[in-house]
Amino acid sequence: MRIVLLLPFNTRELPYFPNLGLPYIQAHIKSHGYDDVFLGIESLIGRKGVSRMLQQVKPDVVGVTCLSFYRHHAMELLRLSRQIVPQAKNILGGVHATIMYEQLLTHYPDLIDRIVLGEGEETFLELIRDLDQGSDGKSVKGLACRSNGMVTATGQRPPLKDLDRLSFPRQEIFSLPEFPGKRLAVIHTSRGCGYGCYYCSTTRFWKKWRPRSPRNIKEEMQAIVNGIGAQHIMITDDAFTMDAQRVKTICSFIRDQGLNRACSFSCSARADKVDPEMLQAMKEANFK
Predict the structure, then answer these.
(1) pTM for this structure?
(2) I need a surface site. Which of 43, 60, 155, 263 has the fewest CB within 10 A?
(3) What domains appear along the chain, each with residue ranges and CATH number?
């Protein structure tokens, strides 16, 4: 089975910024024996590059991620897929698709075959296994689709308990004006948040806060710094500082491994989830 995963982006409004959702899915399904999995980042290869990829790969499945601010671009990529590889199954995922799945399946029934709801690795893997065996995938938990003219969901899939068992995602070095001349990379050290703010989609999408172990994070940070030469790592967790002791442990191994001399780090945090001791440890680990 051949699979193309596409990340849409509006480069006219924002610089390229890595979204690790599809790279995590790519790494996960490749680790389970699906080797023909291709990742297309529209802001790097352009719409013509996406077209060439679809024409050359001739995928059986096309997966597109969808956030609200580039939802129209996501629909354009699904339409392009329909035109070039009409036999392929179009699978949509991401935060906007998860929360607005009824609207999307109602308005775009000809473009979307399935929507992956929430965390995607296990659902997407089970779906392609089902499709690979000739089934329609409608029995897979964690999906939304149309059945007999109605929008239906197949039931909620519980969130992954052990994030350490996920393979590290492919990294793309990028740049931002805030860090001139530096090679940047992104890492997630946890998923979710311990709070449930009304205006935020994080808890609805990721469910409860789930951290990776410091040992697992250390292995990936070493691979990013030593393997691809990143000079700054952006920790894009929604709640990096939820566990103060965990943050201090991460800062300790950054110093012990000398990563703070080769690389700087940044994160976001709730103001009520930091303390002077934690901030001092982060400063010594070269957090900016």
Answers:
(1) 0.92
(2) 155
(3) 3-153 (3.40.50.2300), 171-284 (3.30.750.210)
